[in-house]
TrEMBL record:
It catalyses: ATP + protein L-histidine = ADP + protein N-phospho-L-histidine. Its main location: membrane. One of its GO terms (biological process) is cellular response to phosphate starvation. It comes from Streptomyces katrae. The chain holds residues 124 to 397 of 424 of the full protein. This is Sensor-like histidine kinase SenX3.
């Protein structure tokens, strides 16, 4: 009688344990699959420009007595080499944001400085496409976090806004403080009048290597890693990134980050030794 009662009490616990184990295994398998996909994607992304460079170098050798063809092939080799460099740099950035705890090196970071840096980074492309960039509301706002990672995140959003917009449009960056139960947040919104993002892709664009239109993304030199970096940085800072978009009209990416609190008061001067 007693044994039966005990096993009746233990059985539900046992089945929950089995369930937890199964869930754990499923999760482990999922993580393993994501890792394998990532390695396969990286290999594929690296092979494309390397293959092109190899073919182009053969073409250069074959065209040795045609200087015009040589310079044309060399120009294309340079484009492929740049793509390779961008990809390797973004892979390094991604692994850095995934491995470093940003809050270990956290400090108050001025939003106007971050915005100015992000605009600077795209000035060349924006000027050549006659895209106007305007920022507002950034004065006196400070976020709490890792300066380099925050700059990378905002830089990627502004870069995308410029890349996925037609000529003679406007990119706006607006910042404001929003009150939230867990402490005030700083919201930085990057708005473009670009091609927009189809609804079915909106969830997935934050995945590594996901692109709405691979051909267009390659044309802009995109790696498909930028938004994965942004999402990781936002999350590891206790913030988030979200997107609003209307196809053919434009997109707004909004970054929400914890506000840097008031600076700690300076320690009282030490007068004991006077
Ligand atoms: P990429 O290096 O290809 O730009 P991202 O991870 O930064 O990679 O972005 C993923 C995809 O999301 C892009 O390939 C593009 O299709 C889409 N996307 C990102 N930002 C925008 C934007 N501002 N407007 C339209 N599409 C965008």
């Amino acid at each position: 009688g007693e044994a039966l009662a005990v096993s009746a009490r233990v059985a539900p616990l046992g089945s929950r344990l089995v369930l937890l184990l199964v869930e754990d295994l499923t999760e482990a398998r999922r993580i393993e699959a994501v890792r394998r996909d990532f390695v396969a994607n990286v290999s594929h992304e690296l092979k494309t420009p390397v293959g092109a460079i190899s073919l182009l170098s053969e073409a250069v050798m074959d065209a040795a007595d045609d200087p015009e063809a040589v310079s044309r092939f060399a120009g294309r080799m340079q484009i492929e080499a740049t793509r390779l460099i961008n990809l390797v740099q973004e892979l390094i950035d991604l692994s850095r944001v995934q491995n470093d705890d940003p809050l270990e090196d956290a400090e108050p970071v001025r939003v106007d400085t971050l915005v100015a840096e992000a605009i600077d980074r795209c000035r060349h492309t924006a000027t050549s496409k006659q895209i106007t960039m305007a920022a507002g509301g950034t004065a006196d706002l400070r976020v709490w976090g890792h300066r380099g990672q925050l700059a990378a995140a905002l830089g990627n959003l502004v870069e995308n806004a410029v890349n996925y917009s037609p000529a003679r449009t406007r990119v706006g960056i607006a910042a404001r403080r929003v009150t939230a139960p867990g402490g005030d947040l700083i919201e930085i919104a990057v708005t473009d009048q670009g091609i927009g993002i189809p609804e079915k892709d909106r969830e997935r664009i934050f995945e590594r290597f996901y692109r709405v239109d691979p051909a267009r993304s390659r044309a802009t030199g995109g790696t498909g890693l930028g938004l994965a970096i942004v999402k990781h940085v936002a999350a590891s800072h206790g913030g988030e990134v979200s997107v609003w978009s209307s196809e053919g009209q434009g997109s707004t990416f909004t970054l929400r980050l914890p506000e840097a609190g008031a600076p700690a008061p300076a320690p009282a001067p030490d007068t004991t030794g006077a």
